What does this fold into?
Amino acid sequence: MILPLSIPSPDMQFLQIGPLRIYFYALCIIVGIVLAAIWTARRIGQRGGERGAVFDFLVWSLVLGIVGARLYHVVTHWGDYFGAGKNPMEILAFWNGGIAIFGALIGGGIGVLIASRISGIRFWSFADALVPGLLLAQAVGRLGNWFNHELFGGPTTLPWGLEIESTNPAFPIGLPEGTLFHPTFLYEALWNLLGIVVLLAIERKLRPRWGTFFAMYLVWYGIGRAFTESLRVDPSLLFLGIRTNVLAALLAIVAGIVIYIVQRKRHVGLESSVYLPGRSNPLDSILSDTANRDEYFHVIDRGDAAPVAEAETVADDAPADPDPAGATETSKSL
It folds into this structure.
C-alpha cells in the first residue's frame, strides 16, 4: 500500500440546492455545536441539573459567541476589511470564513453568565460540564477551515503536508506552486480530541469542580493553540512582534492557572449542587409533593408514557455520591 504524500484541499466548499447555498464551513460549526449541546445536557443531568436548561445557555452563548468571534477576527485582521479597495460590508459575511475561537470564548462566556442567571445553574458548574463537548465542537469546527482552504501553516515536506492552490490569497509570495503546508487545522483538531481523553481521565480520578475543570481546559487548549498558531503564515495583527492569537493562547494558559488556584482556595468541599443558592431543579418542586409525585409517576395509566420516562431519567441522573464536605459549602459566588 502506497501512503499518500500530501493532504488535498477539498474541491467543493458548499452545496448548491436550488437557490440555497450551504457552506461546509457552516455545517461543521453547526454539527459541533449540536454535539456539544447534547453532551453538555447529559453531563448537567448527571449532576442533578435540568437538561433542558442547556437550551438557554445554547441560545445566549451562540449568539454572543458568533458576535465575539467575528469582532475578534475583524480587529486582528483589520486590513482585510478597511482600506483602499476593501469592502467593510464583508464584515457581515462570516460564512466566508473569519471567526476566532478566542472571541467566541469571550462572547460565549458572557452568554453563559446571562443564561446562568436565567436558569439558576452556576456559571462554573456549567463551564465544567461543557469542557469535553467544547473540545469536540472545536475539533469538528476545525474541519471547516480545511473546506475553506485557510489557516494553514508554513511550508513542509512531511507526508501529511497540505495542498493549497497558488491562487489562494493567503499563498505566501515567492513560493513555487505545489508547495505543501502544515495542516494546522488537523493539528488542532487532533490536540482537542486528545484533550477529551486526557481531561476526562483526570476528571474521573480527581473529580474537579467549581470551575477547576474548565481551568484545565484553558491550559490544555492554550498550549495546543500557541503551538499551532506559531506555525501559521496568514497575515495577523502583531503585538510586540508576536501574533495576537499566540498572546491570547498564552493568556488562556495564565487565566486557567489563576482560576484553578483561586477556585481551589475558595471551595474546599465537593460541589453539592449545580444550582445557585435559593435555586433548584424545577422538577424537584414537582416531585417533592406526594400528590404531584404520584400523579407524575402514574400518568402512564392514562396512556401518557413520556412523563414517566422523563422522571426516570431524572432519577437515574441524580448524583449518588454522599457529599458531607460539600454540605458545608456556603459560598454564594458563581
Summary: The chain has two domains: 14-266, 282-321. Strands lie at 14-17, 20-23, 162-163, 180-181, 238-239, 242-243. The chain has a mean pLDDT of 80.
